[in-house]
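Hi, does anyone understand the following?
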Amino acid sequence: MDRYFATHGSREWTEYPTQKPEALLERIIKASSNDGDLVLDCFCGSGTASVAGEKNGRRWIACDLGRFAIHTTRKRLLSIANVRPFVVQNLGKYERQVWAGAEFGEGNGKKAAARQRAYVEFITPLHGYTWLHGVKAGRMVHVGAVDAPVSVGDVTQIAAEFKRAIGTGKDAPKTNGIDVLGWDFAFELNEVAKQQAAAANIQMRFLRISRDVMDKRAVEQGDIHFFELGALSVEVKTNKHNVFLKLKDFIIPPDDVPEEARKAVKHWSQWIDYWAVDWDNKRDTFHNEWQTYRTRKDKSLQLEITRTYAEAGEYAIVVKVIEILGNDTT
């Protein structure tokens, strides 16, 4: 059976226990599909099927419940020269869905009930709004659904309702501060949505709802904490046709990080597994035009890069950082 699994000494080995050899998946894909066909891998693991499909001119969809699997697959794909643009999307958290069903039943009100549990005793509820759910410490609060990540589209709706509500009624917002509490967040949301909110003159923070909310004892004891998403600082300098980028700082919330990992991190750059740059983004899918990442042999990480543009003009540069837990900050 060993010939059906990638070996530890092989060049393509990613330390994923069920990894298959690329040659095996390439043989299967070529025998069962044509150039441009779609390859679906519902349990992608280390992503070998997607990698083989990408290298052989197939379109592909890769799915997995494990964050490590998604992170491993994405990193392998980004290491392919001239890889086509792709997106990573969250499609739900089944642990929370099971909890919501057991706690509140399977009816139409379970989402609202789960949302209520997320902020009971923490915020003062508001009524008559769809996207603004309460007030806490002088700031408006939105609580994301239990079974879907907070998306950039959600932020657009929150901002629109906020602007419509200003000055209308006794519960109208008296502040331009909004806290968005979420069980999960779309991979590319944090910095992009903050920029959108700032353009609308809204001070918006994104706070992750702790799993402790699902623990009745923790709720009763008030032992619930909300942590902001990762924050990235990038230095940008220009000189004629040259642009210089340097990562200056990166902060992630400590709640999801095991204690031994926190103790091992001596410099903020150790939180970063790899980062990539789209040098001329057109407000579309992120194009991975340059990246650097750690390997098993080389644990260091390049923190700066210079690009020379052929022509003068205005360019939108997007920087994407993937931290050691597989989360994006853009």
About this structure: The chain has a mean pLDDT of 77.
